[in-house]
Structures are given as C-alpha cells and as structure tokens.
Amino acid sequence: MKNVGKYYGEFGIGSTEYGFRVKYCNDKTRIAVIRVRHRPHRFVTSILPLICVIGDHKAKFRTLYTGATIMQCNKFIVKHQRDVLDKTIGTIDSAKERSDFLKNIMEFSVD
User: Fold this and answer.
1) In terms of CB atoms within 10 Å, which end of the chain has fewer, N or C?
2) Alpha-carbon dihedral sign for residues 35, 40, 41, 46
3) Nearest to 105, CA basis, from 29, 23, 25
C-alpha cells in the first residue's frame, strides 16, 4: 500500500484500500492470488513489478493472470501448476519425493 501511495497518492490508496486482500499464498509454488476491486487493479498490477523487498526478504513479482473471479483464477492456477508439474516430474528420482511434490504443488484452497 505504501508503494501505491508513493506513485498514485491518496487517490490510489483510497481506491485500493477497500477490497485489497491476499486470498491465497503458497510458498512452495511461489504463487499468490490478490483480490482487488475492478478499476484499482490497474494500480496494483503496475506497482507489483516495482517492489523489490518485503521486510528483510528480496521479492520479485510477475503477473501470471488477471481474472474477473476467484474461480477463474483457481482454474488458471491449477492449469499452470499442472504444466509446471509436467516439466519437473521427470527430474525427480524417488517415488516418495514425487508423491510429496505432487501433494505440495497441487494443493490449492482459497479462503
């Protein structure tokens, strides 16, 4: 929110403050779903790539998908995680590591 205020002023803060919420975050797949109202989503999507540090941690944000509903975002994430799974499953040797990897990457639930 500080960065929105820095670049868009009080108007940006006021328009993104109501309705801004992180709905899903998975540290294993490094995917998050951020909910914002329709018009202010432009402020948030333009600011995210400019954020480099969160607290003491380096961060890099890329927008994979902008959807109208959480269900559409859910469908996209499941498809995206399946594509990642197909690419990386061949490099895992043991069956236990594969099953753990499958469990972690396909876990998706929205608040």
Assistant:
1) C
2) negative
3) 29
> What's the gap between Cα 97 and its chain centre?
25
d(CA 77, CA 67): 11
Q: Are 16 and 36 in contact (CB under 8 A)?
A: yes
* pLDDT band at 72; cut points 50, 70, 90: very high
Instruction: Specify the residue for token string 């998050």.
Output: 32
Q: Would the CA dihedral through 93, 102, 69, 14 be positive or negative? A: negative
Q: What tens digit of pLDDT does each residue of 24-43 get?
A: 888 877 888 888 888 888 88
- Model pTM score: 0.68
